[in-house]
Amino acid sequence: MQNETPIPLVSIIIPLFNAESYVDKAIECVLNQTYQNIEILVVNDGSTDNSLTVAKQFESNQVKIFDQSNKGASAARNFGFLKSKGQFIKFFDADDLMNLEMIEEQVKMALKHPNAIISAKWGRFFNNDISTFKIKNTETNHDLMPIDWICEAWKNAKPMHQCGIFLLPRQIIEIAGIWDESLSLNDDMEFFTKNILASQGVFFCKKGILYYRSGLGNSNLSSSTNIKAIESHFKSIDKSTNYLLEKKKDSYTLKLIADIWQKFVYDAYQFHKDLALIGEDKVIQYGGSELRIHGGRRLLIFTKLFGWKLALKIDYLIKTKIKL
């Protein structure tokens, strides 16, 4: 009699920082999965609210709670990965949710496609109201080779890599590398770019759904005046685009990269002019960009009248005055 194929362990790693109102729901949706051979590793990253207390209510042999001083989400994820034992890894944010079949369906696909990464659907819900949830239709919602996935995800200079949609084989992370702890903003772009490029493809699981909680505060570069955050974003783009250029360097890829740098220039110019100027040089280096600035009607009118640099300055001054 042949031995049955062992059921692989899946490690769900949850970095936790000031999410006392949401982390219980995140842990519960993992515990209630139809796939039960899981371990949950919650890494509290120096929360100043009651997040750790809430998480500890779930502590068990299956749910491991760790506590560290504040080092950032990347460091928390790395700590969790080093403590994990799973054949497959999912990085899951403490304020997100997933459908109850997600892990089971992704594992089924992962076993059919060794050395591949499994993705899933995702969408946003607002004001803690799951009834507002809407699936986001993206160009990556189908099976793709690694380079093709990256290129599709980077279209229109809006790369977004939702951590929770991916199920990663442990061996890919061990080859490609863990999270870069020097990054804060946009750390997911760097991590998933290098890991996807180290895989044999990204296979899309139609039955997996990530519910992305929105409206909790904006961490986008365009809303951040934090110099370190802008520097992190710059570094992440620089590393990620170089990873892709090592694999492919045709005119289409260069245009994608030029557009990403142009978007960075628009976002950073008002707050970190030195890096924005370096970004402008990179736009030229990669062949130029026709990407137009995005914003409200007022900003677009100012751009037509004065050019985008002066328009950004005027728009920022008006916004600042309104806040005051």
Describe the structure.
With 324 residues, the chain is of the alpha/beta class. It has 2 domains: 10-214, Spore Coat Polysaccharide Biosynthesis Protein SpsA, Chain A, CATH 3.90.550; 228-323, no CATH class. The chain is 44% helix and 18% strand. It is built from 12 helices and 9 strands. The chain has helices at residues 23-31, 51-56, 73-83, 102-112, 146-153, 170-176, 187-197, 227-247, 251-268, 273-285, 297-306, 308-323, and strands at 10-16, 38-45, 63-68, 88-91, 97-98, 117-126, 129-135, 168-169, 202-214. β1, α1 (23-31) and β2 form a beta-alpha-beta unit. The N and C termini lie far apart (76 Å).
> So what's the CATH class of the largest domain?
Alpha Beta
The outline comes out as globular
Derived from helix and strand composition plus strand pairing, the structural class reads alpha/beta
Count the E strands: 9
Low-confidence stretches: 218-224
Q: Would you identify the CATH architecture of the largest domain?
A: Alpha-Beta Complex
Tally of separate domains: 2
Helical fraction: 40-55%
Largest sheet: 5 strands, mixed
CATH structural fold name of the largest domain:
Spore Coat Polysaccharide Biosynthesis Protein SpsA, Chain A
- Name the CATH superfamily assignment of the largest domain: Spore Coat Polysaccharide Biosynthesis Protein SpsA, Chain A
**Straight-line distance between termini:** 76 Å
Strand order of the largest sheet: 3-2-1-4-8
Rg, Cα atoms, Å? 21 Å
Proportion in β-strands: 15-25%
Mean pLDDT reading: 93
- Run of helices and strands: EHEHEHEEHEEHEHHEHHHHH
The helix tally amounts to 12
